[in-house]
């Protein structure tokens, strides 16, 4: 971003402090401490009203393009042009990073109990084809693989080769969610000679995560050689209890090569401490994707616009990234990380990810970077990102709850490459708990987003109160990491960037 003249400057507490240092520097090194930027001006400028204007534009684009903005469609192309036009108008020079991949599609699927009882399951209600399932029509005996229906239902079903010791080849594997990803379970089943796979939800309690309903999962980005469906815990448990069970699993799937791209827009500043602020721009193919993820991409767009308005570069290069192909398996962000050479990886200081930040029945989720709540620990520094968000929301008197680093959004490629990450989320198909309803309002027992991945995910499916709160936190975090001088592992989240909120008694 080229420097622009005559725009309102960013105010830095550090500047004030520096001035104080100049005046009284000799006696008190404490005052020299860089306490970070005052993020209030940027937070005020990044408003829900402006973001809603972007959402309305994305809605109009979906309406004019078959009702969606999915990867490889005219709806995505038009969304990209809108983002690029806004960025250029703000002084950025956005570039497209093209990539192609095989997109999975289902023409039809069947799942039935054949014997001893006849029972036909309903597609989309009782089961959903795993994405990247193979094609095939198999009727065979069902073999349960290391499932656990008792107690906490801790499950490593299908994760270890020994789970398939003496596995009868040609049968359909019955697998339970848990520990390893679905792709690993089904690949192990294929290696053991399974002809088909049924993966059922785990049936354990994880706050904010639906571990009982019908699984809507993926096997990754490589198509399996066998048909595989996901189903609910109740159906899995029932099947496991039937002696001599024979079932039918039939999937007619296609792979279509998709050409898509990410949009990258950089500020000025130090490339050796690049801050990647990302959100996916694509929607699912059944709806306009306004909450998922119009809200995230519009919020980082508005942050980019208002940051440019300040007319000053941040200390560090901030790269605003609009990912493509997220709904097909994090394709764009994974591709971006895969193209980073050693030096690029070293120069990528942190990734901030924002996916669904306006859920109607919201919870304020912060990714659990230190794994204190869910055990999935991110690379060193992810704990700092989490703390920066927690300190910020605490300074605003806003409660938050942790959400697992479970790899369901675009930070996954970064943490897998050892790059610290974090971000925000307001909930998808998960069910709000009583405790969360007490903290955030809304309705317990209902999904955070009742229109998740549906046609009704329109501009009417966004809560602008939480959108404003999340947008402020996005602006705050972008500036905090954009300004931090050292490696983020040295950042003190209890202080840096929080000065306006914490009266610093020593200054008086
Ligand atoms: Zn999403």
Corresponding CATH architecture of the largest domain: 3-Layer(aba) Sandwich
Q: Give me the strand/helix succession.
A: HHHHEEEEEHEEHEEHEHHEEHEHEHH
> Structural class per helix/strand content?
alpha/beta
Uncertain runs? 1-31, 503-508
Name given to the CATH homologous superfamily of the largest domain? Zn peptidases
Alpha carbon gap, first and last residue? 38 Å
Strand content: 15-25%
Mean pLDDT score:
91
Radius of gyration: 24 Å
Question: What count of structural domains?
Answer: 2
Describe this structure in words.
The protein is an alpha/beta fold and 508 residues long. It folds into 2 domains: 258 residues, Zn peptidases (Aminopeptidase, 3-Layer(aba) Sandwich), CATH 3.40.630.10; 151 residues, 3-Layer(bba) Sandwich (Glucose Oxidase, domain 1), CATH 3.50.30. It contains 13 helices and 14 strands. Strands 1, 2, 3, 4, 5, 6, 7, 8, 9, 10, 11, 12, 13 and 14 form a 14-stranded mixed sheet that branches. The N terminus and C terminus are likely disordered. Zinc ion binds next to helix 7. The site of zinc ion (ZN) has 6 residues, from helix 7.
């Amino acid at each position: 971003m080229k420097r622009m003249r005559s725009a309102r400057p960013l105010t830095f507490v550090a500047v004030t402090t520096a001035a104080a240092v100049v005046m009284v520097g000799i006696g008190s090194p404490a005052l020299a401490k860089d306490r970070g930027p005052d993020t209030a001006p940027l937070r005020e400028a990044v408003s829900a009203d402006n973001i809603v204007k972007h959402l309305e534009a994305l809605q109009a684009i979906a309406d004019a393009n078959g009702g969606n903005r999915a990867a490889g469609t005219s709806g995505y192309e038009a969304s990209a042009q809108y983002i690029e036009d806004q960025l250029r108008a703000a002084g950025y020079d956005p570039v497209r990073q093209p990539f192609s991949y095989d997109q999975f599609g289902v023409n039809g699927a069947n799942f039935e109990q054949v014997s001893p009882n006849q029972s036909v399951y309903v597609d989309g209600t009782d089961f959903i084809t795993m994405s990247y399932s193979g094609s095939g029509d198999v009727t065979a005996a069902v073999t349960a693989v290391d499932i656990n229906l008792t107690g906490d239902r801790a499950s490593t079903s299908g994760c270890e080769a020994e789970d398939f010791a003496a596995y009868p080849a040609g049968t359909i594997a019955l697998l339970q969610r848990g520990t390893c990803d679905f792709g690993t379970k089904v690949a192990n089943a294929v290696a053991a000679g399974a002809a088909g796979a049924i993966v059922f939800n785990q049936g354990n309690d994880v706050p904010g995560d639906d571990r009982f309903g019908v699984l809507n999962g993926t096997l990754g980005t490589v198509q399996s050689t066998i048909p595989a469906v996901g189903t609910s815990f109740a159906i899995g448990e029932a099947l496991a209890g039937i002696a001599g069970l024979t079932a039918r699993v039939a999937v007619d799937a296609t792979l279509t090569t998709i050409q898509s791209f990410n949009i990258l827009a950089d500020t000025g500043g130090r490339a050796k401490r690049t801050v990647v602020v990302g959100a996916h721009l694509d929607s699912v193919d059944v709806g306009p994707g306004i909450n998922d993820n119009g809200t995230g991409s519009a919020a980082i767009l508005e942050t980019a616009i208002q940051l440019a308005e300040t007319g000053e570069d941040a200390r560090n290069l901030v790269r605003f990234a609009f990912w493509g192909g997220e709904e097909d398996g994090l394709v764009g962000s994974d591709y971006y990380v895969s193209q980073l050479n050693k030096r690029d990886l070293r120069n990528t200081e942190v990734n901030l990810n924002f996916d669904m930040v306006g859920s109607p029945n919201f919870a304020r989720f912060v990714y659990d970077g230190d794994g204190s709540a869910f055990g999935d620990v991110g690379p060193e520094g992810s704990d700092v990102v989490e703390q920066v968000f927690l300190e910020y929301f605490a300074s605003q008197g806003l409660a938050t709850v942790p959400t697992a680093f479970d790899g369901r959004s675009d930070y996954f490629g970064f943490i897998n490459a050892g790059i610290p990450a974090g971000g925000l989320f307001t909930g998808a198909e998960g069910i709000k708990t009583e405790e969360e309803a007490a903290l955030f309002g809304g309705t317990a027992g209902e999904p955070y987003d009742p229109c998740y991945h549906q046609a009704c995910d329109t501009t009417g499916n966004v809560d602008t109160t939480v959108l404003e709160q999340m947008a402020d936190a996005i602006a705050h975090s972008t500036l905090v990491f954009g300004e931090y001088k050292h490696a983020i592992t040295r950042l003190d989240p209890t202080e840096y960037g929080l000065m306006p909120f914490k009266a610093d008694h020593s200054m008086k």
